[in-house]
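We now fix the convention by which a protein and its fold are recorded. Think of the row as the fold of the chain written in a discrete alphabet. Here is one such record, which you should read through line by line.
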Amino acid sequence: MGEMKNINQTFYTDIRERIINARENAIRGVEYMRLMMYWRLGERIFIEEQRGQDRAAYGGYLIKNLAAKIEAEFGSGFSYTQLTRARKFYRLYPTVSKVHPQLNWSQYRQLISIDDDYKREYYELEATGNGWNGRELERQINS
């Protein structure tokens, strides 16, 4: 092996930033796809429930049985609670264009727990505008 020579610091910094940016973009892409997965699951569950005779009874039965089957195949992340949240997420954001790609699933889980539409919208805009992570959003909501 030859000896290591010093490399230009500007060059190194540029390469380093490209790696960091690519990793951050990959993480954001995965988070967005996860968010869209839950939105689409909520949409599909909601549509299926609308076909049922007694919506309330069918909805509870549908999600419980779906969760048991999906969790057995795909593991955690698809519990009754998560699928219920996905349905609520879709009901509160029925148009996909209203979903902010800057926010992730954990942030939307916090937001959909707020029953007041105006309050939820306020925290959604604040989280987006101020770059709050899930913990900061939770702290703000609970303060």
